[in-house]
Amino acid sequence: MSVPGPTAAAAHGKASGPLQQFLAFDYGRKRTGVASGNRVLRQAAPLTTVAAEGDARFPLIAKLIAQWKPDALVVGIPRHPDGRGHDNTRFAQRFARQLHGRFNLPVFEVDERYSTTEVLSSRPRDADAAAAAVLLQQYFDASEREAAAAAAAAADVTPPADDPKESTP
């Protein structure tokens, strides 16, 4: 399963400081699953499903944001298996922009292909919230892989030629 990391994912807003606490959303036109997670623990857990359409969902989301005080939000973006977008792709991207505009938090978009299939195979009580947890876990895992790759690349950096440690007496 291919999941873009945070720099590959679309981000709305700028982060000020380390992002530790997250809420994730598995957007649906009638129901939106919500999960919470912490980057330090690298764990995501299903919270609830917001069963409301259109703007009616935002007061409920505002209560969750006030309660959980996330540093950033993650939204799953659905795509066809070949990566092409479809109608729901646009709706989820619009939802991500609305979250950023209403709550002024950084919002990261994560590829959600196959997340619902993964969730339904385990038959959870709240499939929408469980799908949001899968999305957030994918975000944490991709972030960790990206950080490890950056650290490995930094370790392989060759000092500049004019570095005094490299010159011979």
From TrEMBL:
InterPro entries from the UniProt entry: RNaseH-like_sf, YqgF, YqgF/RNaseH-like_dom, YqgF/RNaseH-like_dom_sf
Stretches assigned to the YqgF/RNase H-like domain: 20-119
GO terms (molecular function) for this protein are:
hydrolase activity, acting on ester bonds; nuclease activity
Query: Which GO cellular component terms, listed alphabetically, does the Swiss-Prot or TrEMBL entry include?
Result: cytosol
The main place the protein resides is cytoplasm
**Protein localization:** Cytoplasm
Listed A to Z, the keywords are: Cytoplasm, Hydrolase, Nuclease, Ribosome biogenesis
Q: Name one Pfam family in it.
A: RuvX
GO biological process, alphabetically ordered: rRNA 5'-end processing
UniProt-annotated stretches for the region Disordered: 150-169
What enzyme class is recorded for this protein? hydrolase
| UniProt EC number | 3.1.-.-
Q: Which residues form a coiled coil?
A: none
The keyword Repressor belongs to this UniProt entry's keyword annotation: no
Q: Which SUPFAM superfamilies match?
A: Ribonuclease H-like
Query: Member of which family?
Result: Belongs to the YqgF HJR family.
Task performed by this protein:
Could be a nuclease involved in processing of the 5'-end of pre-16S rRNA.
UniProt name for this protein: Putative pre-16S rRNA nuclease
Instruction: Name the lineage.
Output: Bacteria, Pseudomonadati, Pseudomonadota, Betaproteobacteria, Burkholderiales
